[in-house]
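Form 12-C: Joint structure prediction
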Amino acid sequence: MRRNERTPVLRLCAIALVAAVCGCAAAFGQSGGVKDPLPSWNESAAKRQIEEFVQRTTKPGGPDFIPEDERIATFDNDGTLWSEQPIYVQFAFAIARVKALAPQHPEWKTTQPFQGVLEGDMKAVAASGEHGLLEMLAATHAGMTTDEFEKTVKGWLSTALHPKYKRLYTECVYQPMLELLAYLRANGFKTYIVSGGGVEFMRPWTEQVYGIPPEQVVGSSGKLKFEMRGDTPVLLKLPEVDFVDDKAGKPVGIQKFIGRRPVAAFGNSDGDQQMLEWTAAGAGARLLLIVHHDDDVREVAYDRKSPVGTLDKAWDEAVQRHWIVVSMKDDWKTVFPAEKGKSAQ
Amino acid sequence: MRRNERTPVLRLCAIALVAAVCGCAAAFGQSGGVKDPLPSWNESAAKRQIEEFVQRTTKPGGPDFIPEDERIATFDNDGTLWSEQPIYVQFAFAIARVKALAPQHPEWKTTQPFQGVLEGDMKAVAASGEHGLLEMLAATHAGMTTDEFEKTVKGWLSTALHPKYKRLYTECVYQPMLELLAYLRANGFKTYIVSGGGVEFMRPWTEQVYGIPPEQVVGSSGKLKFEMRGDTPVLLKLPEVDFVDDKAGKPVGIQKFIGRRPVAAFGNSDGDQQMLEWTAAGAGARLLLIVHHDDDVREVAYDRKSPVGTLDKAWDEAVQRHWIVVSMKDDWKTVFPAEKGKSAQ
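Section 2 - Result
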């Protein structure tokens, strides 16, 4: 056989074989058979329980098998996927917006809570109470179109730095949770955010940062109004609360926006308790997990007494009902993506 | 070379090649090159425009290419995906529920609109106005848990027959639209329902009937309340309107529940006009389509003067802005799945 004759056939075979082998390798990798899907998790009971849940619920014919379309996993955001200390990121955004908009509002110099924000007097801001905070939210989150607000959020997040970690807020996300999100998705779970935070504040960046597209983000929201500006339709953000996606609001938000009960739920505070209860109450295998912030070296240690991200009743219930309580200190090899590659701390 | 020596290698090559060729064929089929993805559509301009849109927006590197995660397609339900004549299916459900619940409500015998429903006096029902209809909705759609309501809807749909076609309502869906949904999904589009109908009324069956999962159904809704019944959390349906997903409410619903602008939108009435306007106003290629009910032989002919599914202003705008107006009579080879296989009528 001359070389010229067989070359095209063999090349075709080779290409096809490479494709086939790559396909197999990818599939094998996806099921977690080769590569550790959770490298930033220490080899503790928490990690074992997560892996064991995924294995038994995705094994066709197994007693705990969950069909792929029912594999809904809901994640709280603040304190579960990214840092919520010293203040919620969205609150930091509102403060920055008050400062940026102040030149157009000379009256803010003498009106609380704006005066407090401008003078750095957070006691005065807090003293303005819920009414004051709602006014601040209205002034910074409403009176513009959804497109304009999205641009503002993206702009701020692209430059604002976390006061403690001195890096972008979107880099103050938890590496072990990024791996958990990817691991669940690789096994056919649909990952959702169900957060007390504003839905319009999260959607502009969750796809890039968490791999969670806008349509899988559930959150609190203000009312919207459709109107024509000349020939162009816009959606105007109104200064009126529409839905609060926190505590008992979380199961409501899940039903409103997703319409089926999750099989896995992840939180870190009392605001997530009802979401975990609602998830737990369905028939079949369940994965329920609370992140406990007990690492004051790499992050912040806080729980029962913290005004931000209080973990008290939900902790008691987690212990009583054998939900997984993750110790950031003991269960996580690394906390933030920036630490990746460094040795365990 | 002896036969035994070369066989294993050639067999491997053959297997790999078959796999590769099958892969190509599948991909080719998906893009519509081999099998007609829309066999119930006549070879008209409407069909050509749909296929041409899908081809140019899914061609990598093409000027109109749309990344897969942005391929959001929203469909109205009543009159677009299934029949809405002589009355909305959900209204037929409410009437059936009033009759079923009447023994527990002796007072309904002398109270409108219930008396009218029980006596078959639809004039009296209509005369009770919006207030009466809301009362009827509250009595039949609230005061129970979401789980209980889902069971009731499924139960009714499994036996109730359409008064004209004498088959299940879920069989009064439009075969050409089922094909369009499947064709779009095969090309990476995510298909959503955005309907004025109740979201809790649609979600129990849309996955089975349309291939649209509950989390991709946007609709009108009543308020929900989370509460514990002993150890079991439930979501109670309250007799209070939460959101009306119709007319200007449709773009609002799209933003609230999906969080990104569709690239394709499908409707049949003035209630869909703002959804199509909102979709059209985004940058890039768009597919906008109105189903015109002009077939009084196979379905019902109605448009500008019809109290159900009025198509008036949206029709004018469709003509003016060159949206596709589908003639059921001329563009559809068959209307309902039951006709499939029969010759064109």
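Section 3 - Comments
Residues 75 and 91 of chain A are 20 Å apart (CA to CA). Chain A has 13 helices and seven strands.
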